[in-house]
Amino acid sequence: MKQNKEKNLQEYIALKDAAAMSSIAYATIKRDIENGKLTAYRVGRKYFIHSDDIKVYSQNRKTLQKIQGYTIKQLMEMIPLSYAFIMELIHSGQLPAVKVGRQYIIPKTEFEAFIRTKKLS
């Protein structure tokens, strides 16, 4: 019984320990918490993250780093389209994207192919 209590107490990791465990910068994790990309709990001045959440977050960050592409926000900066319109293109299959966690990444090659199909002759 005591072992179960200890296991439950270790389910939540302090932000500092999560950064060390995942090899992701403390500031990056804190920014993603503040932007709603990572669920965390605040007790006093400290943040705690569920151990399963930090594992998934870490895997997603590694996957994002491997994909050469654009986020929706980056596309919005490149071409004057709304978030809703870009999401509509993604959901309709006109603009292929990879969903990593809560974020979509549009591979550079897919975006270039999409733009070529929209070129007027």
What do you see in this structure?
- The chain is of the alpha+beta class and 121 residues long.
- The chain folds into 2 domains: 2-62, Multidrug-efflux Transporter Regulator, Chain: A, Domain 2 (Orthogonal Bundle); 69-117, Orthogonal Bundle (Arc Repressor Mutant, subunit A), CATH 1.10.10.
- Helices cover 56% and strands 18% of the residues.
- The chain is built from 7 helices and 6 strands.
- The strands form 2 sheets. It has a 3-stranded antiparallel beta sheet. The protein has a 3-stranded antiparallel beta sheet with strand order 4-6-5.
Compute the number of structural domains: 2
For this structure, what is the CATH class of the largest domain?
Answer: Mainly Alpha
| Second-tier CATH architecture of the largest domain | Orthogonal Bundle
Beta-strand percent range: 15-25%
What's the total number of strands?
6
Indicate the CATH topology of the largest domain. Answer: Multidrug-efflux Transporter Regulator, Chain: A, Domain 2
Largest sheet, in brief, is:
3 strands, antiparallel
**Morphology:** elongated
Helicity, in percent? 55-70%
Number of helices: 7
> What is the gyration radius calculated from CA atoms?
19 Å
Calculate the terminal CA-CA distance, rounded to whole Å. Answer: 73 Å
Reading the helices and strands in chain order gives HEHHEEHEHHEEH
Low-confidence stretches: none
